[in-house]
Structures are given as C-alpha cells and as structure tokens.
Design a protein that fits this description.
Elements (H helix, E strand, L loop, with lengths): L8 E5 L4 H12 L3 E6 L3 H5 L9 E5 L7 H13 L4 E4 L15 H29 L2 E6 L12 H21 L4 E8 L5 H14 L3 H10 L9 H12 L10 E4 L7
Parallel strand pairs: 1-2, 1-4, 2-3, 4-5, 5-6, 6-7
Helix pairs in contact: 1-8, 3-4, 4-5, 6-7
Keywords: Oxidoreductase
GO biological process, one term: fatty acid elongation
Organism: Mycolicibacterium sediminis
Length: about 260
Amino acid sequence: MTDIAPPKCAIVTGAATGLGNGIALRLLSDGWCVLATDLNADVDDRFGPGTFDGRVRTAVADVSDPRTAEALVRSAMASFGRIDALINNAGIGGPGGNLDEIAIDDVQHTLDVNLLGVVRLCQAVIPHFTAQGSGRIVNIGSVYAQRPVVGGSAYIMSKAAVHALSHCLAMELGPRGITVNTVAPGYMLTRMHREEIALQARAAGIDDHEMQDRLRAEVPVGRHGTGADVAGAVVWLLADDASYVTGQTIGVNGGIVVS
C-alpha cells in the first residue's frame, strides 16, 4: 500500500482580496493547506470554517507589527505541523506625489509594510525551512520597481528593495535547499492599481477610464492582468519543475517590460 503524502502548506499574506486572494484560492484548489492572512477582517469571511476540507486557516494581522511574523509562523505550525512555502504578497500603495511633497511618516509606513514586513516573515520562517532542508519563498514585487513612474517613489523604492532582498536571500539560502524568487506583476486591475490609475489620471488631466485605456494600450498582449495570471506564476515557482530556479524576478506583465 502506497503512503499518501500529506498536503504541503503555505502562508499567504494579503489574502483577503486582489492578487493574494487569487494566490490562496489557487493553492487551495491544487490541494495545499493555506494560512491566509490579511489586515482586512474580510479574510475570515472569504475562507470560512469548514471550507476546503479544513485545509485553510485565517489570521487578521498587520505585517508591519514586529510581533506578527513569529505569531503567523506559530499559527501555521500549530494548524498544519509544517510550512513549505511563504508568499509575501501584503502591500500598500503608499503616498502619491514627488518625494519632496510627501511626509516622511508615510514613507516609513510604506517601508514598514512592503519591505520590513517581508523581511520579518522571511526571518521567522527560515529556521523551519533550514531544519527540514527545503522551502520556497516567493515575494511579490512590482513592474514599477523595473519601470518607475513619477509620483510613486515610496512604493517603488519599497518594491525595488524586495527584488534585491530576493536576490540576496537566494544566494544565502540556496545551500540550505531553499529557493527565493520574486514575481513582479504588471498592470493588474486590483484596488491598488485603480488608485494608481486615478492618481495618474489627475496628473494628466483626464478621466480614469481614459487613463485605464492608455495603460492597457501599452501592454503587448492587449489586456490588464488578473489574480489568476499571478497565481499561475507563483504555483510554478512552488512546483518541483522550478526546483532549479532561484534569485529570479519573474515578470507577469503582458510584455510591458521584457528582459
């Protein structure tokens, strides 16, 4: 009789809506266990008790809080007994405006969420991955870290730092059997991107619909991306087929940046 391997387990941050929700749902549909966490209490409603054969747990948590990372790792271990992957998706858009126009407190908060939240979760999960000799970290970056725009310096610097962090961790953790990669989404019709569209539209003196059309026209494949597009890249990076892939930035952007 063949033993059935237990399901793999992942922590997904920012899982209540948008890209994180798409990633969590895809993992669950593929048979993973997931600790779905978000600052938004809607995460509890989206992954209610008894759904997905009990393979999902939720946590309302703020990744910028220094206590959160260790608490989430403890929760995942208590719920599932193992952690195989960490998907750092939680993030905020930060203040809009040129650097000399925005408050340093807003810059600090953006870095606390988008960068230090990622750093702390990586620090918390690495000992578990090291002990088992395997693990996957996927950090969600942004096309704007590769293709900056005016008025988004706080967000862009935070995501550029996440890209660099993935590179550094890949070199540090490769000998331990741990891979670390970044997925850099392009124009995704999330709440955050709609806010960016509104900001760019105001700067250009046009309405939001016209700006959305302009942005879509920049994309060679002719459309905005979806959570499913990003989730597909994430699950590939978690699969055995990607075991030799680390330190990479995978653009899911419809071709607006090519490399």
